[in-house]
Every structure is written in C-alpha cells, then in structure tokens.
Amino acid sequence: MKSIYILGLVATAFLIFWFLRGDWLPKAQYKKATIVVSGQEFRVDVANTAIQQAKGLGGEDALAQNEGMLFVFDSPTNRKFWMKDMLIPIDIIWIKDNQVVGVEHRVDPEINVPLYKKKRYPSPQRVNYVLEIASGRASALGIKKGTDVSIRFE
C-alpha cells in the first residue's frame, strides 16, 4: 500500500514538472506576430500566457536571423529574465509601448550552471514587451534605446 502511495506522489510530481516546463506545448499553439525594428522584419511566436512565458525559447536549439519570441504583458512592469533551459545565446530587447528602452547583448545560455546560480537580467524600466532574437542581431542592426518598434499581431 505504501509503495502505491509513493508511486502516486512520484507520478504527480512528474506531471506537474512536465506541465510547468511546457514541453507538451506544440509550437502551433503560439500566436504569431510580425515585428519591424531597425528596418528588419522578424516573424515571432507570441508568448502571452504564463505557461508560454515560463517556457520561452527553452529547449530550442536554433533561431533564424529573422525569427524570435515576443513576450506580451498586460501592463508595463519591471521584469527579470533568465536563461532557464536555454541552449542558444540570444539578444534580449526590452520594449515599452513601441520603443526600445534597453538591450541585453549576447546573453549566454549558461548551460552547465545550476538554476540557482543563473544570472538574472532585469529590465531597465517598466516594459510591456520583451523580444528575444538571435545573438548578435541587435548590434548588427543598430538596435538601441530609443529605436522605434512596430508590432502587427496576426
């Protein structure tokens, strides 16, 4: 009887972990948007639910030069991002309304760093969007504080 109870606890813990990681969430479940910043058009997945935002780009092993992920928040708030489950380096672009308010360049995935030691990247001010793109693209395109952003949701 005790072993069935323990097995049930283990199975429940696994299901909760699996659900929170979002591994079950197919890419097709993400809405799409097109973002234009510094003359470059990016086709992005939109992460606007807590589960999608928790997963982010975690587990992705490649990101094309014109792809990314847009995190959408209901209202401008200070945000902190980290590289949980990330396999690739990225640039993080902090956006308030339709303007870049900060950029984190070439953020390392910290693959062999334990979760509690992973670096946190705080927004420079309150933001309602965060754009993650391939590492080095922000510098190559001249994206910086004050750059205008156009977002078209599909």
Report on this model:
It comes from Candidatus Colwellbacteria bacterium CG10_big_fil_rev_8_21_14_0_10_42_22. InterPro entries: DUF192 (IPR003795), Saro_0823-like_sf (IPR038695). The chain is α+β, with helices and mostly antiparallel strands and 154 residues long. It has a single domain (27-153), classed as Jelly Rolls (Sandwich), CATH 2.60.120. 20% of the residues lie in helices and 38% in strands. The protein contains three helices and nine strands, in the order αββαββββββαβ. The strands form two sheets. Strands 6-5-8-3-2-1-9 form a seven-stranded mixed sheet. The longest helix has 20 residues, at 2-21. It starts with a helix and ends with a strand.
Brief account:
The chain is α+β, with helices and mostly antiparallel strands and about 150 residues long. It has helices at about 1-20, 50-55, 135-140; strands spanning about 30-35, 40-45, 65-75, 80, 90-95, 100-105, 120, 125-135, 150-154.
